[in-house]
Amino acid sequence: MLKKVIQQKKIKMQIKNTFPPNWNEIKKVFPKAEEQQAVFTFGETLHNPFKAEITRDLEIHEAVHSKQQGKDPQEWWDRYCKEPEFRVEEETIAYGTQLYYLKNTKVKDRYLPSRVIEWYIDKIAQTLSGKLYGECITYNKAKTRLRHFIREVDK
Ligand SMILES: [Zn+2]
Fold first, then answer.
1. Which pTM was predicted?
2. Distance 87 CA to ligand 1 centre (A)
3. Which segments of 15-138 does DSSP mark as H helices, in order?
4. Which of 134, 52, 126, 60 is nearest to 93 (CA)?
5. Sheet holding 40-42, edge to edge
6. Quick one: pLDDT at residue 6?
7. Could you tell me the distance, in angstroms and rounded to a whole number, from the CA of residue 53 to the centre of ligand 1?
8. Which is nearest to 42 in space by CA: 72, 86, 10, 82?
9. What confidence score (pLDDT) does residue 3 get?
10. Ligand 1 center from residue 137 Cα (angstroms)
């Protein structure tokens, strides 16, 4: 499933400046969502109520969640809200795919230098271990998992 997502160059999410249908549940579990300008994928729609900038790598991250949700986005969201370990696993795949995209996509005919990729890994590990996701993993573990993910995909 993962490789399909990565190879899918035609990923195009439907982006709307609306709240997701389960916003009431989400905001109880993730009170920092508004402050952090979070976006929310529900099925095939990327909800962007706080009008964040949707970069291509973020769109790919959200497309992974769309695939993870399959036919039952509500069920996925219920687990995502209730089970921190499930949340970490799903986010590791989404952020890992995002990083993989950044690492393997040319910007002005060049790949991003490894120090820039390192900067992204650091930033993402901070976010994933931070308040937005309910501090569900430590910074160091998040970093290790992200690196592991990128290595595994490259095999
Ligand atoms: Zn995510």
1. 0.93
2. 9
3. 23-29, 56-69, 73-82, 84-103, 114-128
4. 60
5. 14-16, 45-47, 40-42
6. 61
7. 15
8. 72
9. 61
10. 14
Q: Is 127 helix (H, G, I), strand (E, B) or coil?
A: helix
Q: What is the total residue count of the chain? A: 155
Q: Which two tokens stand for residue 41?
A: 């994928």
CA distances from 82 to 27, 38, 104, 116, 136 (A): 13, 18, 34, 34, 11
CA dihedral of 155, 90, 97, 152, whole degrees rounded to 10: -10
Q: What is the pLDDT of residues 46-76, one digit of tens each?
A: 999 999 999 999 999 999 999 999 999 999 9
149 CA to centre of ligand 1 in angstroms: 15
Domain encompassing residue 108: 2-154
List phi, psi (to 5°) of 9. -75, -15
Structural tokens at position 121: 């890994």
- State residue 30's pLDDT score: 94
In this predicted structure, what is the pLDDT of residue 51? 97
The pLDDT value given to residue 8 = 63
Q: Total domain count for the chain?
A: 1
Residues of the chain with pLDDT below 70 are 1-9
d(CA 94, ligand 1 centre) in Å: 6
Q: How would you class 19 by CB atoms within 10 Å of its CB: exposed for 0-12, middle for 13-18, buried for 19 or more?
A: middle
